[in-house]
Design brief:
heterotrimer, B: 311 residues, alpha/beta, 4-stranded antiparallel sheet, 10 strands, 35% helix, globular, C: 323 residues, mainly alpha, 13 helices, 79% helix, Peptide ABC transporter permease (chain A), MetI-like_sf (chain A)
Chain lengths: 299, 311, 323
């Protein structure tokens, strides 16, 4: 699937941006030209050779703080998405197979979580349960998990109720084989779409929380924290929020773009597009899935 | 028994067929008055439909004229061009298709000259249509009574209350039991046969002179199919409605039509009075259709036996 | 026909309530469990860190915190049903009153955000759908993509810096109740509402465009054309009606995010609203206040969705029967 996503221009752009952001997270603190915590008398300076993005209200180098803060945002966004994936997708798939009671309970829980304004809850839970951004992200991950639950459940339902799976069951194919063969092709793409979207959402949430100063200790630089401190000095330096804001937006946009690209290559429209470009594909990955042959059960 | 207008050569543009009234033993004998050949309400001359993307014709010259109270049948397998021909007549060809030649006249007006506004005025009031899968041709979110009343209100200018009354009358006219109740229901609450009656009621609500029935009975089971055909025949007798009946099913065409066109791969391979074409097919393909039909014994009663002609 | 419709609407209302009652109970239970999980106590707030264990036990007994968990929950839950959210640990004030004060601010902003979001989203989505596959469509889609990746708090900061600090067209913060004049009231809530609305604009526009385009492909449009209805009538009476369903449903799903985002926007614009109250109480460790805020937010979401479901049942009855 990765190769098919990369065959689309949008997929390549999205992957490149996300890779760059990840690289920033891994190397950011090393790349920072100055100590992000070092204050100076050069307060609220404009762009100069020494400070490419100027300095903040305490004279700290903005570029260094931006680079140093990237790790928190990237890790946070990934934590949100991974938590949501595990907490949401697994029960979503199981809800189709584990009987009515499990189905009912998980459905109600998903309904409940959806009804909770998650930013409000994240703020409340984090403040009350003691901070640390990791806990915050775990909580947020649980709160956005219903998306994965629904997506995974819907995809599994269509697979489970489709004639070819029924045929495979009647033909005696082992359930494990059916799951591997069809869940991979039918459930994985929508879940991947949800994941890419949630990474984007995760960035917004991490930024929002750090903006409010929740989950991080003050001197530690974060993208949201940068925005918050810039907000107080808009009068002197109105363009200060531009860099962190752009960084957040571009990252979120890349996540959405990747989601669209995955959707395109896994949907019929995407397949037609690929075909018209003459992209090489492995046989059997496109078009309607051939009904599994009864011999499949022997394997 | 061979009509002069009958042609087995698809390519040549055939002359407009003589009114089938002249044929002995025809149903028209039972029809009172109207013996003088009425001017056709719908006439097609050498109509071609072109696929603009491929640049080729998908319908190669269809010609027929339809007088009030008469019925033309178009038979053919799917993809033979019969539905595209109907859509051309209604001015609703799918994107990428256009009328590439010939003329279509509705009540003497060449449709090529129609503005969008005049098309809107013409549809429903002069020409209308019903289709296969009637449920999908009705708005799922509006009660069927309201959808019929809407046509009456918009096309005939009736007031809300009067339109609603008229809708119930129309539902009654298409022989739905308890029209009041049915009118208040949504499409998903009705069966296929009921929906086709509703669709017919909506189609005739503004009193059109031509009704196109494109595979209108195809998905219905046999008894319901017979009832719908009966209803169409009845409407024709009572209101002088002219019908274009499109079907892949010979039985349907045999039961209703005065004239038949057999289409294959966009060509009219055979055309003539229904009796003659079905009893004495000239073209190989028509013969195939007729013999298959007999072999599988579908609705023997409906095949054009002479005994059936005089009840 | 009338009676028929009424019973249908009642059935939908009944079903919605059946779904939302468990949601409400579970949500309040989770909310209430927060205190036990947090290990926070009013004694720490009132007595400070140096308090003796006896003093702490005494204060906790005053607050009824020594009773069994389920008994506490039951008392609290019955109180909630009567609109009693308890008293604040920090100042002993009635929480219902405190939230009531902030709710006016937040609801004003949220309502205006919804109005802006729905209006703009509607216009853009309809425009794109009617001019589909033209440059207008592409331009709208591009705009919507840009708008959708702008987080509310980033937009908020930009708006403050451009329209308040930069040009001084709007006040940069604070709130004036509508009772003191509609003009000032609107001036104070316009920027925060705008910041909150962009997300709604993007979602509504995208969803509406998609469902309108899908609706135009349906056979019933052909049916209406053949019956001689005008393009305008077909759009308003049939296409829009059926395209509206998914859009309304999206709006229902969007509402919790709108309520949640108020935490951030109220902070930026210095509004003493519901979200600000939540943030302050949470930071202060005032558990009953936080519980109250959460309960009210769930109630808001649940009632909004109830209304959405009822409207949906009227607009697209067919799509609702499976719910």
């Amino acid at each position: 699937m990765v190769r098919r996503v990369l065959s689309l221009t949008s997929g390549r752009v999205a992957m490149t941006v996300l890779l760059l952001v990840a690289l920033l997270a891994a190397l950011g603190p090393l790349l920072a030209p100055q100590d992000p915590l070092a204050t100076s008398d050069d307060v609220l300076a404009g762009i100069s050779g020494g400070h490419w993005l100027g300095t903040d209200n305490l004279g700290r180098d903005e570029l260094s703080r931006l680079l140093a803060g990237s790790r928190v945002s990237v890790l946070g966004a990934l934590e949100v998405a991974l938590t949501a994936l595990v907490v949401g997708a697994v029960p979503g798939i199981l809800s189709v197979y584990l009987g009515r009671a499990f189905e009912w309970v998980t459905l109600r829980l998903a309904d409940t979580l959806v009804a909770l304004p998650f930013l409000l809850f994240a703020v409340a839970v984090i403040a009350l349960l003691g901070n640390g951004l990791t806990q915050a992200m775990l909580v947020t991950g649980v709160l956005v998990a219903p998306l994965f639950y629904r997506v995974a459940r819907a995809a599994t339902l269509t697979v489970a109720r489709s004639p070819y799976v029924e045929a495979a069951v009647i033909a005696g194919a082992p359930v494990g084989w059916i799951v591997r063969r069809h869940v991979r092709s039918k459930v994985l793409p929508p879940v991947a779409v949800a994941f890419a979207q949630t990474v984007g959402t995760g960035f917004v949430i991490v930024s929002s929380l750090t903006f409010l100063g929740i989950g991080v200790q003050p001197p530690e630089p974060t993208w949201g924290g940068l925005l918050a401190s810039d907000l107080g000095y808009l009068g002197q330096k109105p363009w200060a929020p531009v860099a962190p804001a752009l960084l957040i937006m571009v990252t979120v946009w890349a996540g959405n773009l990747l989601a669209d690209a995955i959707r395109d290559v896994s949907g019929e429209a995407g397949r037609a597009l690929l075909r018209s470009r003459g992209a090489r594909r492995r046989p059997g990955t496109t078009g309607p899935d051939p009904a599994p042959a009864p011999s499949g059960g022997v394997r | 028994m061979t009509a002069p207008s009958r042609t087995a050569r698809p390519g040549a543009v055939p002359p407009v067929p003589a009114p089938p009234e002249s044929l002995p033993g025809d149903r028209a004998d039972r029809r009172p008055a109207g013996d003088a050949p009425a001017p056709p309400v719908l006439s097609l001359r050498g109509v071609r439909v072109t696929d603009r993307t491929g640049g080729r014709d998908v319908v190669h010259g269809v010609t027929f004229a339809l007088a009030p109270g008469r019925t033309v049948g178009i038979v053919g397998e799917s993809g033979s061009g019969k539905t595209l021909t109907c859509r051309a007549v209604l001015g609703i060809l799918p994107e990428g298709f256009e009328v590439g030649g010939g003329t279509i006249e509705i009540e003497g007006t060449d449709i090529a000259t129609l503005t969008p506004a005049r098309w809107t005025a013409l549809r429903g009031a002069v020409i209308s249509a019903v289709f296969q899968d009637p449920a999908s041709y009705l708005d799922p979110s509006v009660t069927v009574g309201a959808q019929i009343a809407e046509v009456v209100r918009v096309k005939l200018g009736l007031k809300r209350r009067a339109a609603r009354r008229r809708a119930v009358e129309l539902l009654d006219a298409v022989r739905l039991r308890d029209p009041e109740l049915v009118g208040g229901q949504y499409p998903y609450e009705l069966s296929g046969g009921m929906l086709q009656r509703v669709l017919i009621a909506a189609a005739i609500a503004a009193g059109p002179r031509v009704l196109i029935a494109d595979e209108a009975t195809t998905a219905l089971d046999v008894t319901v199919q017979a009832e719908i055909l009966d209803l169409l025949a009845d409407l024709r007798e009572r209101t002088g409605l002219a019908l274009v009946v499109v079907s892949h099913d010979l039985a349907v065409v045999a039961q209703l039509c005065d004239e038949v066109l057999v289409m294959r791969h966009g060509e009219v391979v055979e055309q003539g009075p229904a009796d003659a074409v079905l009893r004495d097919p000239r073209h190989e393909y028509t013969r195939l259709l007729v013999t298959e039909h007999e072999r599988y014994g579908l609705e023997k009663v409906l095949t054009p036996e002479p005994s059936k002609e005089t009840p | 026909m009338r009676r028929h419709t009424l019973s249908r609407v009642l059935a939908v209302a009944g079903r919605s309530v059946a779904v939302f009652v468990p949601v409400f109970v579970v949500a309040t239970f989770v909310t209430f469990a927060l205190r036990s999980l947090s290990g926070l106590s009013p004694a720490r707030i009132q007595l400070g860190e140096e308090a003796t264990p006896e003093a702490i036990a005494r204060v906790e007994a005053q607050w009824g915190l020594d009773r069994p968990f389920l008994a506490q929950y039951w008392d609290w839950f019955t109180g909630v049903l009567h609109g009693q959210l308890g008293t604040s640990w920090t100042n002993g004030a009635d929480i219902s009153t405190l939230i009531g004060l902030g709710l006016g601010v937040s609801l004003s902003v949220a309502a205006l955000a919804l109005v802006i979001g729905v209006t703009l989203g509607f216009a853009l989505g309809t425009l794109a759908a009617l001019r589909r596959t033209t440059w207008v469509d592409r331009a709208v889609t591009g705009l919507v993509t840009v708008v959708s990746v702008m987080p509310a708090f980033v937009v908020g900061i930009v708006l403050v810096s451009v329209f308040a600090v930069g040009s001084g067209l709007f006040p940069s913060g604070g709130y004036v109740p509508a009772a003191q004049g509609v003009g000032p009231w609107l001036a104070h809530i316009t920027l925060p509402a705008l910041a909150l609305s962009l997300d709604v604009v993007a979602d509504v526009a995208r969803q509406l465009r998609g469902s309108l385009v899908a609706a135009y492909r349906e056979n019933y449009v052909t049916g209406a054309v053949v019956r001689g209805l005008s393009p305008r009538r077909i759009f308003f009476a049939h296409v829009l009606r059926n395209g509206l369903g998914p859009t309304l449903a999206t709006l229902g799903l969007k509402f919790p995010a709108l309520v949640g985002a108020s935490v951030v926007t109220e902070w930026i614009f210095g509004l003493q609203g519901f979200g600000r109250f939540a943030n302050d109480s949470a930071q202060a460790g005032d558990v009953p206040a936080v519980q109250g805020v959460l309960v009210v937010s769930v109630a808001l979401v649940v009632s909004f969705n109830l209304i959405v479901n009822l409207v949906l049942a009227r607009v697209t009855p067919a799509a609702q029967r499976g719910v």
